[in-house]
Write a structure and sequence with these properties.
Elements (H helix, E strand, L loop, with lengths): L2 H14 L6 H17 L4 H17 L8 H16 L14 E6 L6 H14 L4 E6 L4 H14 L3 E2 L7 H15 L3 E6 L7 H14 L3 E7 L5 H13 L3 E5 L8 H10 L3 E5 L7 E3 L2 H8 L5 H11 L2 H11 L6 H13 L3 H6 L8 H23 L3 H5 L6 H11 L3 H30 L20
Parallel strand pairs: 1-4, 1-5, 2-3, 2-4, 5-6, 6-7
Antiparallel strand pairs: 7-8
Helix pairs in contact: 1-2, 1-4, 2-3, 3-4, 4-11, 5-6, 7-8, 9-10, 16-18, 18-19
């Protein structure tokens, strides 16, 4: 969602990269940064404060003489962007026995889905969560939570026909204590807009049960209204944190940058997609890096560690360097890559300076198209053909081409590329072996090399 803002800021930085900062250059750069933030829907007050802080830092640090403009501007904007987004990750509180987590927000913000995603994340962290259906005005919301709970294997507490939210929460807490659930996630009722009745109900739950976490769920595509919503909920309930949903949408997204500033409360999680697993802890520094095109390798590595089995990956690595590496193995690697997200999400986490959003989108689109094509080719083969591509003669290739709707020439090229890749991997493995056998030994040209006095290498 920050693609537009990210592209504009990177263009500004690139423009200044060949200059040395002086007062005029800095004024021009800040004017462009200001415009980029406003176009991205960042609140005007936030923009003014942000630009003022950057200018004060630039003047105060005396950076205007002989300094690489691009590097210095990146450093200052990165620091202030990180502060704007909340400075540091604020982990979820697990205080209380049971630990109570209350979710609220407007209808359509993704609250019920976020409750299920949060339950799944807590369970992965070793907790035993219970979901509570407290949206008594929408039977569809209760049904949705039950469906999601069944999908992820988490219990959902409901009382059929009851509209007494306070009683539902009280009995849910008793049930959690009795059955050994240590986290209780309360999915409360939403409205199309904030009203007195809804807020009174939420305040009642908050006053009686004092949840450890009071999380406001905000649709990041809401725009400037997100700020008004956040401020109103915070004034009434003193929220402890925010969950930003639909962060993978096409909106300008700058309003999300304003929410932390306007409430003083941290973004704790972000929802990056519709899949039930995609609720990620929010790290302000990592988000600032991504906005400025610096990538987010840490999050990518963490995602890989979480979703890819290490032993399976090691076994696959061995196969890759052997003659036995098959198209079936190739397909398994492709499936593991898919678990990390789409190509455009992965590219967003990689530091690729100088590439525009348009180019990134095109690369990702072509890459996704190619991967789908490869998948359709392999799926059109028999299990035996996948394991032994050598048996793929002309008639078999024609059958595969017909099965996946591609030209035989495409099948031939893919199989040729696959064989070339196997040869390269085997050669690389031999090189690794040769280098390993030489470890700790002096190479022939080093054996009679006289020492050079006064220098160490």
């Amino acid at each position: 969602m920050f693609d537009s803002l990210s592209e504009k800021l990177q263009n500004i930085i690139q423009t200044t990269s060949s200059k040395k900062l002086d007062e005029d250059n800095m004024a021009d750069a800040l004017r462009e940064v200001r415009r980029a933030l406003l176009e991205a829907d960042v609140n005007l007050k936030v923009v003014r404060a942000f630009i003022s802080t950057i200018k004060d830092r630039a003047d105060g640090e005396q950076i205007l003489k002989g300094v690489n403009a691009s590097q210095q501007l990146v450093k200052i904007v990165y620091d202030e962007m990180t502060k704007l987004l909340g400075s540091e990750n604020k982990p979820l509180s697990t205080a209380g026995s049971p630990n109570l987590i209350m979710l609220f927000g407007l209808q359509g913000s993704g609250k019920t889905t976020s409750a299920a995603k949060l339950a799944l994340r807590l369970r992965k962290d070793g907790r035993n969560p219970l979901l509570v259906a407290a949206d008594v005005y929408r039977p569809a919301a209760i049904k949705q939570l039950q469906t999601l709970g069944k999908q992820i294997g988490v219990d959902v507490f409901t009382i059929d026909g009851s509209t007494d939210v306070r009683d539902i929460v009280a009995k849910a807490i008793d049930y959690a204590k009795e059955k050994g659930f240590n986290s209780v996630i309360i999915d409360t009722a939403g409205r199309l807009q904030i009203d007195t009745e809804m807020m009174a109900e939420l305040v009642l739950i908050e006053r009686f049960y004092n949840p450890a976490e009071k999380l406001l769920v905000i649709d990041s595509m809401t725009g400037q209204e997100a700020i008004n919503v956040a401020q109103t909920f915070n004034e009434q309930l003193d929220i402890t944190g925010i969950i930003l949903t639909k962060l993978d949408g096409d909106a300008r997204g700058g309003a999300a940058l304003s929410v932390v500033h306007s409430t003083g409360k941290p973004i704790k999680f972000t929802g990056m997609g519709e899949k039930i697993v995609e609720l990620d802890p929010f790290y302000p520094d990592r988000m600032a890096q991504r906005i400025l095109g610096m990538g987010d390798i840490i999050s990518l590595v963490e995602k890989a560690q979480e979703k890819i089995d290490l032993e399976q990956a090691k076994e696959m690595e061995k196969k890759m360097f052997s003659k036995e590496f098959s198209l079936e193995d190739f397909m398994s690697i492709q499936k593991q890559m898919k678990m990390l997200g789409s190509l455009d999400q992965i590219m967003g986490m990689l530091p690729i300076p100088g590439i525009s959003k348009k180019d990134k989108d095109q690369i990702a689109h072509l890459g996704e198209k190619h991967l789908k094509q490869v998948e359709s080719i392999i799926q059109s083969m028999t299990p035996q053909e996948r394991k032994k591509p050598d048996i793929l003669n002309g008639s078999r290739r024609k059958r595969i081409a017909k099965g996946c709707g591609l030209d035989v020439a495409v099948i031939n090229k893919f199989l040729k590329d696959f064989e070339n890749m196997k040869k390269m991997m085997q050669q690389f493995n031999k090189m690794k072996g040769n280098l390993g056998s030489l470890k700790g030994k002096r190479l022939p040209h080093q054996q009679f090399r006289p020492p050079i006095r006064g220098k160490r290498f």
